[in-house]
Structures are given as C-alpha cells and as structure tokens.
C-alpha cells in the first residue's frame, strides 16, 4: 500500500495510497495523539517483492517467493532503497522514533548457493542480516529504533543465545495470538538479557483462521486477558523489581500472507478492537495488578465486573455475554457491514447443513446422479426449492455487501472479497440445481440387477 517510487515503483499495489492522501492521513493521526510506527518486511513475507520478475532471482529458494536471500549484495541494496523511501517519507512528517522491520516466519533460510557457501548456521545468517538492517536504518536516521518480531529467536538454545552480542537500538516484539497463552518464560528471559526493551503483540482480528469472517470475540478477549495477566507485576528470576514491558501492539491482520484470501475486515471487527482497548485501559488503571483473585478470575466474571457497562455504553446496546451477543442491535461504525456478514454466515451454515446433514444429504447427490443415474424425485423437488431459495438469499446479501463495502474499500478489494466468500457456496448450489434439473425428466430407471430379465409370459400363464 506504500507509494514506492523510482526503481521500486512496481512494488506498489494497484490501489496503493496516493502520497498526498497518505501525508494527510498521517498528519491527521498525529494531531489525534497517535505515534506512527511503520512496518516493512525485510526478510520473510516478501512475496510482494519477490513475485516480481525483476526480483525473482533474489529468492532464497526459487520455488518460494516469501524469503529473500540476505547474502546477495543486490538484496541488501533493494532493502536499503525500500527503507530509505519509507523512513524519509515518515520523518518528513514527524520524528520517526520506531520502525518495525518484520523478520517473522522466515521459512527458507540458508538454502541458496550464496548463503550455504558462507558455512554459517541459520542463526548466524539471521542475526547478521538483522544487524545489517539495523545499521541501514541508523545510517538513514540515527534517532530511529528498530522493532522486530521474536519468533525466529525462539528456537535458539540458551548456550548459543549467550554467545550472541547485545542488540543495540533493536527491540523485540513477542507475539502470541492464541486464546490459551503459550508464552515461554525462558524466551522472555533470553530477550530480557539481550534487548533494551520487550514489547508484546496480541491480535484483535486475523487470528481465528485464514477464512474467518468475523472475529471470535471470546478468543480475542482471552488472548488479551491472558497476556495482561501474565505481564502484570512480572518478575524475572533473580530480580526483585517488577519488569515494565514497553508496549502492547494490538495486531489486526487482513491476510495470513500476500497470496492468502482476505480474512476479517476492520469495520466488522470494531467490537473486538473496542473491547480489548477497554481491557487494556483497565490494566493501565491497575485492575490487573498482583491480585490472585483477579488473576484466577474466570473471563466471564471479569468481563461482567469490569467491562460490561463500558462496553455496552460504547456500542449503545446491552451486552450480557460476549460469547452469545448478537451485535445487530448495536451502533458502531461498521455495524451495517457486520450485520450483512452475519447474514452471510447464517446462509453458509445452512448450506453446510443441507449438504452434510443426514436429513438433507445433498452431498450424496453427485454420486447417485453420476454413478447410478438415480434420483428420488419427491426429494428432488424439495431440494430444488431449497437450493433456489438459498441462492436468492445469497444474491441478496451479495447486493447489500457491494453497497456497504463501497464506503470503505475500492472496487478491486470488494470484488475479491465478495467473490472469494460466495464462490464455493454458489458452486455447490448451482451445481446441485443443474444436476437436479437434468435428472427430473420422466423416464424409466435401470435395475441394479442387470443379469435378470422380466418374463411377462410367466404371469400370463397364471
């Protein structure tokens, strides 16, 4: 989405921000009190670069466009130019205190000839690369500190970790998006010894599945609550003072990767964002300080005691249970989109039921129609009405989504999102309709016992 220029112009998305538009947005955010931290991928998740023909040769493994070769000089020049454009754009608007360089999920490392001939371990190559990136950032703007995702550090054994030098002007971000925390205290201690500060990262959307439509509010709430319970009055072994984590990044992913479909849309995810911001405010007010009663409190009890009133007031509706609430009566920017997506999910649920349930069993239609040339015509009439009615419901929701999404997104995004959501449902329903119509003609059916022949003379003789 960043409006790259010059040699990097092909890295722009078709619907990237206009420079003037982006400057206006950033200045508006700063006036509201936001500090901007841009994120730019510099190792893994680089499909948006490495899919391009002109940068294809910089892949670590030619088959996979997600990881760049860190050893090639051209790779370093490319990343440097990306950082120059990004850092200069931001610092010309306001001082750039932090920049996030990504570096998570580097699935392919130390595979190409240039890397393997160096005879370094994967860890050595990774550490060397991020130190280079940090130096590039420092050369461009000495006031900027680098943030980096932590997951590539997690598997480094303590013995090897102790041999790694201190990371000056680099701070790590420990991400964990699960409802049930799997945070490693050993890794936290590793980071504490090597970095000036540790951030944590949660997810208010984008962590419930690649095809998720609306955030699972319970899972998103538990993710934040469990993180906050863990870091409240946190002490590292052998230390007497509580550790102060520098910040919490509430991530909201829209795709799992560059080539994956869109998952939850931001406007429909506002209730999750709002709830978890309210939770963090309670944390900052000291409601999660060292108190065993609160730390052991079941999440529903915590919600009802500390958040229910504020959450209900913010959404202008009464919310008793975050698991079972229907937000269709609530008022927030995005509620109309939320309601139409809820309608879509109901239709989706019904289609799955029609095809997989023992009552309807439409999943068996394909086999009996194509392999046996058989059909229960009484059921076929009912199923045709069912498919036809469901298709009309689907087309109605599609029309509504086209209108409401135009308030937030361009045509390319709208077309991709709606078609991806509707495609497999239409395919099932329209395919079943065609089969049913083809088999509904008046005809005789062949017997399955083909070796027997009907002899009418037997009856006549009696």
TrEMBL record:
<dbReference type="InterPro" id="IPR038901">
    <property type="entry name" value="HEXDC-like"/>
</dbReference>
<dbReference type="GO" id="GO:0005975">
    <property type="term" value="P:carbohydrate metabolic process"/>
</dbReference>
<dbReference type="Pfam" id="PF00728">
    <property type="entry name" value="Glyco_hydro_20"/>
</dbReference>
<dbReference type="GO" id="GO:0004563">
    <property type="term" value="F:beta-N-acetylhexosaminidase activity"/>
</dbReference>
<dbReference type="InterPro" id="IPR017853">
    <property type="entry name" value="GH"/>
</dbReference>
<comment type="similarity">
    <text>Belongs to the glycosyl hydrolase 20 family.</text>
</comment>
<dbReference type="InterPro" id="IPR015883">
    <property type="entry name" value="Glyco_hydro_20_cat"/>
</dbReference>
<protein>
    <recommendedName>
        <fullName>beta-N-acetylhexosaminidase</fullName>
        <ecNumber>3.2.1.52</ecNumber>
    </recommendedName>
</protein>
<feature type="domain" description="Glycoside hydrolase family 20 catalytic">
    <location>
        <begin position="14"/>
        <end position="157"/>
    </location>
</feature>
<keyword id="KW-0378">Hydrolase</keyword>
């Amino acid at each position: 989405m960043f409006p790259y220029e010059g040699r990097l112009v092909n890295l722009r998305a078709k619907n990237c921000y206009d420079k003037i538009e982006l400057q206006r947005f950033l200045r508006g955010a700063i006036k509201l009190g936001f500090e901007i931290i841009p994120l730019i991928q510099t190792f893994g998740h680089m499909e948006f670069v490495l899919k391009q023909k002109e940068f294809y040769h910089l892949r670590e493994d030619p088959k996979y466009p997600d990881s760049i070769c860190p050893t090639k000089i051209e790779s370093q020049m490319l990343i440097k130019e990306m950082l120059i454009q990004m850092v200069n754009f931001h610092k010309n608007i306001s001082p750039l205190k932090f920049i996030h360089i990504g570096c998570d999920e580097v699935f392919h490392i130390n595979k190409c000839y240039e890397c393997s001939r160096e005879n370094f371990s994967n860890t050595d190559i990774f550490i060397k690369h991020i130190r280079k990136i940090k130096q590039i950032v420092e050369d461009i703007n000495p006031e900027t500190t680098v943030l980096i995702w932590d997951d590539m550090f997690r598997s480094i054994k303590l013995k090897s970790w102790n041999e790694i030098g201190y990371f000056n002007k680099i701070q790590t971000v420990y991400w964990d998006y699960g409802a049930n925390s799997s945070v490693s205290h050993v890794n936290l201690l590793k980071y504490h010894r090597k970095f000036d500060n540790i951030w944590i990262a949660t997810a208010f959307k984008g962590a419930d599945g690649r095809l998720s439509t609306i955030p699972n509010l319970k899972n998103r709430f538990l993710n934040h609550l469990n993180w906050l319970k863990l870091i409240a009055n946190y002490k590292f072994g052998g230390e007497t003072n509580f550790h102060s984590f520098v910040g919490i990044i509430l991530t909201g992913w829209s795709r799992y990767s560059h080539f994956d479909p869109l998952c939850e849309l931001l406007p429909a995810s506002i209730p999750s964002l709002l709830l978890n911001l309210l939770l963090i405010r309670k944390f900052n007010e000291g409601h999660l300080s060292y108190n065993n009663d609160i730390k052991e409190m079941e999440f529903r009890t915590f919600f009802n005691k500390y958040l229910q009133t504020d959450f209900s007031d913010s959404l202008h509706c009464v919310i008793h249970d975050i698991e079972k609430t229907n937000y269709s009566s609530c008022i927030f920017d995005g509620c109309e989109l939320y309601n139409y997506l809820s309608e879509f999910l109901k239709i989706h649920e019904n289609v799955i039921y029609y095809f997989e349930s023992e009552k309807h069993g439409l999943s068996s239609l394909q086999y009996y129609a194509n392999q046996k040339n058989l059909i229960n015509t009484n059921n076929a009439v009912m199923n045709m009405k069912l498919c036809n009615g469901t298709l009309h419901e689907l087309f109605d929701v599609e029309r509504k989504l086209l209108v409401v999404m135009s308030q937030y997104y361009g045509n390319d995004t709208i077309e991709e999102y709606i078609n991806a959501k509707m495609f497999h449902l239409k395919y099932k329903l329209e395919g079943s309709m065609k089969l049913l119509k083809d088999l509904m003609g008046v005809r005789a059916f062949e017997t399955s016992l083909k070796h027997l022949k009907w002899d009418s003379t037997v009856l006549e003789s009696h």
